[in-house]
What we know:
By secondary structure, the protein is an alpha+beta fold. It has 22 helices and 23 strands. The chain folds into three domains: 5-172, Orthogonal Bundle (DNA ligase i, domain 1); 236-481, DNA ligase/mRNA capping enzyme (D-amino Acid Aminotransferase, Chain A, domain 1); 488-610, CATH 2.40.50.140.
Amino acid sequence: MTTHFTSVAELAERMARTASRLKKRAEIAEAISAVRADVDPISIEKPIEMGHPGDVGLFCLYLAGLPFAEADARKLSAGGALLTKALLAVSGASDAELTAAYRRHGDIGAAGFDLYTAHAVAGDGTLALSDVAEAFAGMATAKTTAIRAALVEGLLRRATPLEAKYLLKLMLGDMRIGVKQSLVEEAIAVAAGVAVAAVRHAVMLEADLGAAAERAFAGTLGDARMRLFHPLGFMLASPVDTPEEAIARFTKEISTEDTEVSQGDTGVQAFLEDKYDGMRAQIHCGARDQHGRVAIYSRNREDITESYPELVEAFSAVEEELIFDGEILGWDFAAGLALPFAVLGQRIGRKRVGDEWRQKIPVIFMAFDLMFAGGELILPLPLRERRNRLEAVVETLVDRTRAPLLEPRQPKAQGSMFDTEEYVGERLPRLMISPSRLVQSAEEIERAYADARARANEGVMLKAAGSAYQPGRRGLAWVKLKRELATLDVVITGAEYGHGKRAGLLSDYTFAVRNAAGELENVGKAYSGVTDAEISELTEFLKAHTLQDQGHFRTVEPLVILEVAFNNVMRSDRHASGFALRFPRIVRIRTDKPLAEIDTVERVEEIYQSQVDKPVES
C-alpha cells in the first residue's frame, strides 16, 4: 500500500499537543509499525541505499523534520520568500491576510493552514510520501527558481490544509512539534524491537535516519559502515566560573554514565588546553575512493568547505582516512598567535575567498581531538589514548599539510603537456595541535588561565583524561573556564516579534547606550535571559509606548533599562555606536535605574580596549 503524507501531518499535529516524551515515543513507534505493516512486501527486499529510503524511512525522516538524510548533500533551496509566494498563489490570499496570519502564529506553516481554511482550499488527499520525495529531489536539482517554485506549488495544490501546514514546516526545516531526531530513533527501536544504541550507532555511522529505520526492520543494523563526509556530533563542554569549581566537577562522586570517565581513574587527571576563540570545526580527509577530497563542517553541521580553500589545499595531501575535531583560527604567522575572533569573523560565511582575504586573514586548523582513524571510529577510547594517536598523526602530517598564502595558479604557458600548479610564495603550515598537559590543582588552572588570557585566548578547557568522546553531549567530562567582562546597563530602543511559542510577543530587544552628547546609540540586540512572564509584561508595555510600528519591528520609547552580559566587544558598522556586543544576554530588568544612569559609548570603548584579544588597530 501507499503511505500518504497525511499520516505524517496528522501525527505531527498530535505530537505538537502532547507534552509527555514517553507518550510521544509510544505513539510514534505505533505509527512507524503501522507504516511498516502497509509496506509492499516486494519493496522490503530492495537493498538499503542512501537517498532512496522506502516509506518507513521517509516517514521517519519527515517526522524528524529532515527533507533528506544528513549525509545527503542535496538542499531544497526553498527559502521563506519562495514558500510565501507559492502559498499566496495556491491559497488566493492577500499579502495582508498572510501578514496577519503570520503575526498570529510566528510560523509560516500555521499561517498556511489558516489561509487554506479561510479560502476553502481542500487538496485531493492523495499526496504520497513518494510524491513528496520526488518533488524534493526535483527541487534539489532545479536549475532555476521558477522550476523550484513550480514544484512547490504542485505539492501545495495537492495538499489538504493540514498537509500544507507540515509541508511548509518541513521545507523550512523547522517542524516545531517537540520531536527531535533522538526521539524518533528511540521510537524506531521500540517499533522494530531492537536496542536504541544499535539504531543510534547506525545513524552515527551513515548519517541517515531513514536508512537506519529500514535496517532496524531488516535486521541489518550491524551492516552499517562509517562514511566520511558527513558531520558527526561535537562533544561539548560545560561552563565553570572558578578553578575550584572545575576541580570539584572532576572529583565529585557521580556515575560513570554521567561523567563519561572510566572507573579506573583516581584524582583529577585532567588535560588542560587553551580555549581558543575561533570557529569549532571538523575536518574529513583521506578517503581512498575520493582521493584529495576534503570536507569541513561547522559546529551546527553546516558544510563550510568553500570558505577555507587553503585548508582544503593543505589537507588534500592526506592519504589516510581521518576525522579531526578542532578550531579554525585566524593566525598571525609572524607572532605565532591566534587572531581575535573579531578578525576571523570577517571571513566567516564567505563562499568565495580570494587572495585578498587569504592574505588579510590567514587561517590554520588547531586540532585537539581525533575521531576517526585506522578505518574505525575511535570515540569510545579514553581521551589519553585518542590524544596519543592525534599526536602521532599530526607529527606525520605537519610538514605535508601546508598551503601558500595566495591561491595556486595554473601556468599560462600554451601547449603544456602537464597540468601542474604553480604555487605563489612559501607553503605555510596549516595543521597545528593544541598544546595539552595534565593538571591536578586549582592553582595550576589559575596560572594556566592567566597565561591563556595573556596569549589573547578566551580561557582554558579541562578534559577528563579517561573520558570517551560523546557526540552531542554536554556532560561533566569537559569543562571550560572563561570569565565574563563587566556588564552594561542599556535601554531598549526597539523590539520585534518572536517565533514559535513567542509568536505575538515582543521578545527580541534592540538596546542602546548614551554618546557624549547624551544621544542614544544602539550597541546590540538580545532575546535570552528574560522569563516568559517578563516577556508578556514587556510586550504590553512596549506596545503602549511604541513610537513607530513597522509591522514586525517597533521603535519604542527609551524607558526600559536592562543589564546585559556579553562575551566581548567588537568594532562594528552595524550599530551607530560603532560597537557590537558578542553573545549578549539579559541579566535582569533594571527597574531601579533611570535613563540618565545607563552606560555610555565611552564605557563600551573602555571595555573594548581592556580586552587582551581585541584586534590590532592601525
